[in-house]
Amino acid sequence: MLRILSNSKFLIPAMAILAIFAAGSGFYISLKQSQNQQNSALGSSQSIEGLFWPNPKQIHEFNTLDQTGNSFGLEQMQGKWSFVFFGYTHCPDVCPITMSVMNESYKQLNIKHSDLQIIFVSVDPERDTTEKLAQYVTYFNDDFIGLGGNTEMVDSLTKQIGAAYFLNNEEQKENYLVDHSASIFIFDPKARMVGKLSAPHDSAKITAQFIKIKDFINAQY
Amino acid sequence: MHNIKLFLILFFFVSNSLFADENKSIHISNAWISEAPPNVYILAAYAELKNTSTETQTLVSITSPLFSMIEIHLSKIIDETAKMEKQKSLIIPANDSVEFAPGAYHLMLFSPETPMKAGDTAPMTFIFADGSSKTIEAVVKKRNNHSHDHNHDHKNNH
Fold this sequence. Notes:
The complex is a heterodimer. Chain A is built from 6 helices and 10 strands. By secondary structure, chain A is an alpha+beta fold. Chain A is globular, with a radius of gyration of 25 Å. By secondary structure, chain B is α+β, with helices and mostly antiparallel strands. The interface between A and B is medium-sized, with 31 and 27 residues. β8 of chain A pairs antiparallel with β6 of chain B.
């Protein structure tokens, strides 16, 4: 390079190349800046509560049964946005609260966001049969999806998400309680866990947070 | 079936008024039972208990002829995990109140005699440590954001 520059014959074309490169990089910087401005208008990743960015968790194949007895896996998560909540039908307080709050939010969101599905995953496969799950989820909304199966099937999803649960069934054999995640997990159409909404839940807050997260993720494509 | 239910309720009210000492310092308001999805036989009930006396009152048990058992529970979220803790009793301090509300203290109602729908009512007797009791009617309601809002309103009022 130095030798080329010292040779006057090559000086003009070399300077021309440099100028093009400098103009190009300047353009690139200004493009980046405008993108950043756009991002801050939408809310930067730091300012969106519950957003997992830049490291969303990609979900791999899992194997559960839905409330109609059909198999439900990774494929059913793709192409749609999903809310995923873990609970059990014998739970009298936190689960029905969350289900009715998600129903309120779903009714608000469904008008513009028809690509959203609401999924309840039972972490009590012993008591929550397919039939029970169907009656449970449709009580809140006919569109809701209930997932279950056997312990292995349920764990194929809970372990990936990190939604630990604990059955307190040693002392109490029949009416045992289950400790479960209180959060609502948000998945994008690529089946990436892009956010988590923490309890206590409120339908207006869920709706607003979901829209922020969705707009942010869509702006990354 | 309906006659048995009626008899149970009547018997319950008569027996309570004959044998138990009514607690005059506790006022129970907004008692409601959350309607449950079909085939769910564990329900939650909520209410506000106000102690108008200068002495502490301790709630030790709750009974209803329409449920096999009632327990006092506290919902807690610890490290993003939802847990329920059974309470042996609940103290209502002098000139103070305790609220049973969604996501907090609640009554856990086991195995209803018959499925309960919004609009149904169930008598419930709250029994205190001094042997006194208070019987009220709780109404079954559908759970909606309203119940949740109530909780918020209440907190804001304090």
